[in-house]
Amino acid sequence: MNSTLDFYHTHATRLAKQYDSLEFETVHRSWSTFWPKCGANVLDVGAGSGRDARWFAAQECSVVAVEPCNRLLQLAKKSSTQAICWIEDSLPYLQNVTSSSNHYDLILLSAVWMHLDSKQRAAAIKRLHELLAGNGTLIVTLRDGEFKDGRETFGVSVNELSLLCSGVGFEIYHVTTDEDSLNREDIRWQTVVIKKLGSLKEY
């Protein structure tokens, strides 16, 4: 991911403005049923500009925001006055992230999965299972559409993600297909809601 990180570092200011031009409620409306409630422990992996982390904090959640690009992380910190724990770290291992005694009620990976190769995805799904609370929710968005600016990506599919999930004790609960929030005609998104095995009876 080095070349991709270099891209995000070089274009951090422009990208942060682009991300912040969209409202959380618009980008993430397809999984609104699972938005966290006050007091929830939330982990935002690939926090970018901090837009989503700020929204979670405004809902009075306890928020840990992880971003591998230092430049984006610094911009995100400057844009927030809320009590958010900012961490420079990356998948697949999230070595700097520790779970609370109750683990995380919600983990969000928005526009992240396509940057991981197959080996990284296998390791990442194991780590995410470790960090998620027993009745928690993992949200993963999948991008269908290539980058034309040099960022490295790998093909994604719900089927591949489902196989990885079944190997660690996750199961897919819900999938939606969404138009691109920036109205790019050649890009589509799928939002995958994932739960731990045995927890679906709660819904």
UniProtKB/TrEMBL annotation:
Xref: CDD domains: AdoMet_MTases
Keyword Transferase included in the entry's annotation: yes
| Membrane spanning residue stretches | none
Q: In its UniProt record, which GO terms are filed under biological process? A: methylation
Sorted alphabetically, the keyword list is: Methyltransferase, Transferase
GO MF terms here are: methyltransferase activity
Q: Which Pfam families match?
A: Methyltransf_23
- InterPro entries, sorted: SAM-dependent_MTases_sf (IPR029063)
Full protein name? Methyltransferase domain-containing protein
